[in-house]
Amino acid sequence: MDARSPAQARAMSAESDVVRRYVHRYGPVAWAHAATAEVTGSRTWHYWWHAHLLHVLRDAEQHRPDPRRGRLLRALHRGIALRTLGRWTTPFYDDVAWMTLALQRYDIHDRRIDRLVRRLDDAVDPAVGALPWAVGSALYNAPANGPAAIALAWSERRGSAVDLDAWVAARLDDPSTGLVRDGVEQGAVRSELWTYNQGVAIGSALALAEGAPDADARDAHEARAASLIRAVARWCAADGGLFPSAGGGDGGLFAGILARYLADAAVWFSADGANDEHRAVSHAARHLVRRNADALWDGRRAGLFAADPRRAARATGEDLDLSVQLGAWITLEADVTVSGPVTS
Q: Which of 105, 114, 309, 312 would bridge 58 by S-S if both were Cys, CB 3.0 to 4.6 A apart?
């Protein structure tokens, strides 16, 4: 992959600005502040935001290897271990799933992964067939079960991953739009549509397709991923392909997560050049990633990205959140992914 490409240059600039503004070193450890210094509560430490920081740094390392980044990753690992007293976990299963994915992206042989995967698998409620959002929670949602399904599929617990993916499809797929709704609580479906829920559903389908035991299973998982991508394209069509904004805070990461898994899908479906349907799905996924990356870059001001790609960045409010800048950086790394081997 050409490290001098425009997509690489944009991602590298985003990385530099995030690390410079938000990541702080304290001797051999490092962690990121939640916002820039002028924001109240800026020094807050967010577990799941750090999971995505680790994950996107690994994306960057794959795209632009650099020993300095490796040293930063090791310092961030020490910081997370210190902040979690060595446990690397929280009572929120969605957060644990995101951290598991980040560690799998970093080193699939990390012994911490086995512990986190086992925690996720053991937490599945057999009466429901899904993972609760948190310990003691009555909410069973896509943000917990989607990334958990991916993490389990990448481990030796494929059966559990298949079950979680099937539960999301059966309980949360919206028959009118083809999109994934947020969750089920006390038997009632929460109908909100969020970008990251579509992303992890695409990701879990592809993770299961990759390890499918036979061609029929592979085709079924591919078909689900393709259907979700077409649904996302319809959802975003009225706005020229731009993703809905979820604002700052946790919502700042949502669109970037969708971009990451759309990029993976663009590469996956480009592999079969003789399949017209796969080529069309790959093109649709690539277009969505590129459209949003371009809009974010066009709205960049003074090294900041906007929480909403429809406007320019501001040096106030939600645009100062680490999550917003991480989400944009993730999207730009996804653009690097689709700028490589994907054909149009």
A: 105
